[in-house]
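Students often ask why we bother predicting the structure of a whole assembly rather than each chain alone. The short answer is interfaces. A chain on its own may look different once its partners are present, and contacts between molecules only exist in the joint model. In this exercise we take two input lines together and write out one structure for the complete complex. Read the inputs first and try to guess which parts will touch.
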Amino acid sequence: MLKSPRGTRDLLPPDTALWNFVEAAARDIFRAYNFHEIRTPIFESTELFARGVGEETDIVKKEMFTWEDRGRAESDKGQSLTLRPENTAGIVRAYIEHKLWERGLNKFFSIGPMFRRERPQKGRYRQFYQIDAEIIGPAAAGSQSPARDAEILELVAALLDRVGIANWTLELNSVGCPADRTKFNEALRQALAPVVEKMCADCQRRAVTNPLRVFDCKVPEDQPIIKTLPTISQFLDEDCRTHFEEVKNILNAVHIPYVENPRLVRGLDYYQKTAFEFTHGSLGAQNAILGGGRYDGLSEALGGPPAPGIGFAIGEDRLVLSLMETATAESVIRKPDVYIAPLGGGMNREAARVASELRRHDLVVDLGDESFRLKKSFEAADKMGARYILIVGENEVAADAFALKHLASGEQVTVPRADLAQRILRK
RNA sequence: GUGGGAGUAGCUCAACUUGGUAGAGCAUCGGACUGUGGCUCCGACGGUUGCGGGUUCGAUUCCCGUCUCCCACCCCA
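Now the answer. The structure tokens for the assembled complex follow.
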């Protein structure tokens, strides 16, 4: 049997109602913060991600779906294309390409699929969905301000609260400027050198390949050593330090709780200053539902003008997973207001007329078939959770009044055609 | 990419310590009940036991490979 490819899956009803609920809530929140939707291609030139995400990142080195396009002529060498592994690079590319700063546009959101060639596990798929938001623009427009960082964080908190995710934790850090990180990395290597032999095998490897990852070590014996290691906060320059302080000041002012995590780092090269993550329990090892940060140098790295920016990406798959602990898809689905049961030959066309009329009143209407016995229609109406069942038989058509039964109470009345919609809307 | 666990009906799961005709509940469809449901009862449908190979008279069971999912690692949202 044909199956969906590894790491992909079908989203089916009723779960899709939960996805729509999340996306509708996100759109509401974005509107309140004056963000506007942008839709970029799901594949881009490979070069964009190499330059934007970072040549040396695992994402670019081994986790992208990349192929060579067919050139138009023999002499035309095919361009390397890649399914987008994240969306910030694409949005910044569009910002540059269309000179969006000229139009005064600087707050964007986007919802859609991303692709990474990783080994799948729960909450980690090869096609996954992200809700992205970015603030980007000329410094003169205030895009470098810590107020934007705080605004983004407040937006995220509002969104999580809106969809009903309780007990989230905001972890906050500043990863400084590139110069700060260089100094920090150097200090970290020096601090590790004399002690690394006493640490676990993983840490010994990390100390060489990626020293920052030592902070993620979960081995209890290593913790005392890790506590003695320097943190990035000690290496921030004046500008980064005051920026970070002001972000925290504003968060305090709007009562957004956070915990400082000096060990929080970001994997992508372009992050600077503010880095953050929202986590939620019981997602196993993949406990981050959302992450983001500031990327002041990205536009220039992609050949654009200076355009400080900050943004985040919600892992929608994980958000929905978290949501399923408390909410069921059934609770957000809209059930039919009325199920119409045509009864007897020729009644399909009469039922269609009634259904058409009721739908014009914004009622959710479903119907059976004139071949159904009444019992079957009742069972169908029950199964789909309809509020009312409406019987359209010869008697009803002759009288131009229909039997309307409230399924939960069993109360049944005869209602003239003209009064049907109002009657159903009432309760 | 590495390590471990698991794949049996649409869903949730059985089928004794290497082996003997693959079962239940729920769901679906039909009937009891030709214009009044949720309950009950009866019946039917449903499977190349993930796929391929091997051992065996005989494999859901044992062995090998492979695919997929799950857990963890790497890394990351």
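Check your guess against this: The CA atoms of residues 290 and 314 of chain A lie 4 Å apart.
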